[in-house]
Design brief:
Layout: H1 13-23, E1 27-28, H2 40-51, H3 64-78, E2 88-91, H4 93-105, E3 111-116, H5 122-128, E4 132-137, H6 152-158, E5 163-169, H7 181-194, E6 197-201, H8 221-224, E7 227-232, H9 233-236, E8 245-248, H10 251-264, H11 270-279, H12 284-287, H13 289-305, E9 310-311, E10 319-323, H14 332-343, E11 345-346, E12 348-349, E13 366-370, H15 375-386
Parallel strand pairs: 1-11, 3-4, 3-5, 5-6, 6-7
Antiparallel strand pairs: 2-8, 7-8, 9-10, 10-13, 12-13
The protein binds pyridoxal-5'-phosphate.
Pyridoxal-5'-phosphate (PLP) is lined by residues 32, 93-95, 119, 169, 173, 201, 203, 232, 234, 240, 243, 245.
């Protein structure tokens, strides 16, 4: 009918696995969303906002009180004062902020460096903008170091005169890797040397464990000056279905982002914005999130240790990787389907986050579990996994 703009995009493994999970009535620890409700107070605030008449188009970049609340939170946590009028835009989830960023910044022929494994929306967004994604792999865990790490020399080597953007996502989906001070130091050197603009996907900013802080790129003035920092209320307040997020960027970048934003969506849900502005007055719902999710992480980790899976440490996000090499030598997608069909637990193959999911180098016998689930859901899944 029309020549495809995304010829490589078919039905993703996420859709395949979710469909299979429904068909087989499996416990779905695949997709990244909570199976519990948000705070009833937040729901009541939306209800109140609707009844109070906040049902028409709000101001294009987001209502003033919400942008102010985001500015206050960001300054309190990361020390960077974004101007809510010229530097903060409320978006329909992080996904729209990412697409807006690519469409606004990437010109035909530009390159965008993406660290893989990577969240699945970056590459199609880059392609739709006419850009070319350039993949740099994370260093895989070693015998003496169980964490995925960024090899900043390889990132630096991938940047050239055609590079427009560098996408960094920390805490990282799917590996859980977080930024440490040395990573930000390296990033500062790269930005100083190359002038590259950063797209910092920080949707899991409030899900960092073991007492460690989230090191936002906004904590470093030299990085904040060249970064579009993206976050999501869906991850923070257990409302992934509301599709509410935002991006913070220097005024000169925000002008360009808003040009695209106004024609992509114009603006986003008014009652949700009013409710979130009010709800953000209380920091507890997000400052309490690490402890809330750490208990779930520890529950899943301890449970998996009693199975033939070998869980990897998860310093952030609500995901955990686990090695299944003691169970099977099947490729990851095949193993994931088998686990759903034979044992009723759905996971996502890590290979799905790579450019070449079928390549042997992308198949290291690892699957991703999501632990944003009720304890009863996790326990029921673990009971099944013990039988594998
Ligand atoms: C790394 C990452 N970025 C962005 C998103 C999308 O966020 P939103 O639901 O706010 O569009 C997700 C959702 O899973 C994610 O994991």
């Amino acid at each position: 009918m029309v020549p495809s703009k995304l010829p490589d995009v078919g039905t993703t493994i996420f859709t395949v696995m979710s469909r299979l999970a429904t068909e087989r009535q499996a416990i779905n620890l695949g997709q990244g969303f909570p199976d519990f409700n948000p705070d009833t107070r937040l729901i009541a605030l939306v209800d109140e906002a609707m009844k109070a008449g906040h049902n028409q188009y709000p101001f294009m970049p987001g209502i003033a009180s919400l942008r102010q609340a985001i500015a206050d939170k960001t300054e309190a946590l990361y020390g960077h004062a974004y101007d809510p009028d010229t530097e903060i835009t409320v978006t329909s989830g992080a996904t729209q902020a990412l697409m807006t960023t690519m469409l606004a910044c990437v010109h035909a022929g530009d390159e965008v460096v993406v660290i893989e494994p990577s969240y699945d929306s970056y590459v199609p967004a880059i392609r739709l903008a006419g850009g070319t994604p350039v993949h740099v792999p994370l260093r895989v865990p070693q015998a003496d170091d169980p964490y995925y790490r960024v090899d900043w020399d390889r990132v630096r080597a991938a940047i050239n005169a055609r590079t427009r953007l560098l996408v960094v996502n920390f805490p990282h989906n799917p590996t859980g890797t977080i930024m440490r001070a040395a990573d930000l130091d390296a990033l500062e050197r790269i930005v100083a040397e190359t002038g590259v603009i950063l797209v910092a996907d920080e949707v899991y900013e409030h899900i960092v464990f073991d007492g460690l802080p989230h090191l936002s790129v906004a904590t470093r003035p030299a990085l904040a000056a060249r970064a579009i920092v993206i976050s999501s209320f869906g991850k923070t307040f257990h409302t992934t279905g509301w599709k509410m997020g935002y991006c913070c960027a220097p005024a000169a970048l925000t002008v360009e982002l808003r040009k695209v934003h106004q024609f992509l969506v114009f603006t986003v849900s008014s009652p949700m914005q009013v409710a979130l502005a009010e709800y953000l007055r209380d920091p507890l719902p997000y400052t309490g999130l690490p402890a809330f999710y750490q208990a779930k992480r520890d529950r899943l980790f301890a449970g998996l240790q009693k199975t033939r899976f070998r869980p990897l440490p998860s310093p952030g996000t609500f995901f955990m990787l686990a090695d299944y090499s003691a169970i099977s030598d099947a490729p990851e997608a095949e193993f994931s389907k088998w686990l759903t069909i034979e044992h009723g637990v759905t996971v996502i193959p890590l290979a799905a986050f790579y450019k070449h999911p079928d390549a042997p180098s992308s198949n290291r016998q690892l699957v991703r579990f999501c632990f944003a689930k009720q304890d009863a859901t996790l326990d029921a899944a673990l009971e099944r996994l013990q039988k594998v």
